[in-house]
Amino acid sequence: MKDNNKPKIIAFCCNWCSYAGADAAGTSRLQMKPHFRIIRSMCSSRIDLELILEAFSRGAWGILVTGCHPGDCHYVDGNYKTLRRITLLKSLLDNLGIEPQRVRLEWISANEGGKFQKVVNEFIDEIERLGPIKEEVKT
To answer: Which residues pair with 64 in a beta bridge?
Structure first.
């Protein structure tokens, strides 16, 4: 991930909804920019903030976290925990000198392939405008 010429986005997707939404986007052949990689998690609440910080330290330009819509989590309240953690993370990133908009949280269900495509393309465009994270602010 150290090549700084192209954006590198890590998309953490919950297994039950947003990963299926990503699959729907792919099987529908919706056009998406190729600068992202998906990591599937059973629930968005299982994505530890240390994983996100590690991804940044290894050269990721941005992190997309996707999960079930509030009220539809297969683990009851996992997405509410995710919302609290991402809010905390954005505050931490700001204190580290990393733009908080490099992390995006979205709720995407299994039948929202079009939304997945739109979110990914918009996020990649935004991250391309920001460019790579400056080496001196990384921890």
So the answer is: 11, 104
Query: For 16-71, what is each residue's pLDDT tens digit?
Result: 999 999 999 999 999 999 999 999 999 999 999 999 999 999 999 999 999 999 99
Half-sphere exposure of 35 (CA within 13 A, CB side): 24
Q: Which of 58, 55, 80, 61 is nearest to 69 (CA)?
A: 80
Give the predicted TM-score (pTM) of the model. Answer: 0.93
| Other CB atoms within 10 Å distance of the CB of residue 126 | 15
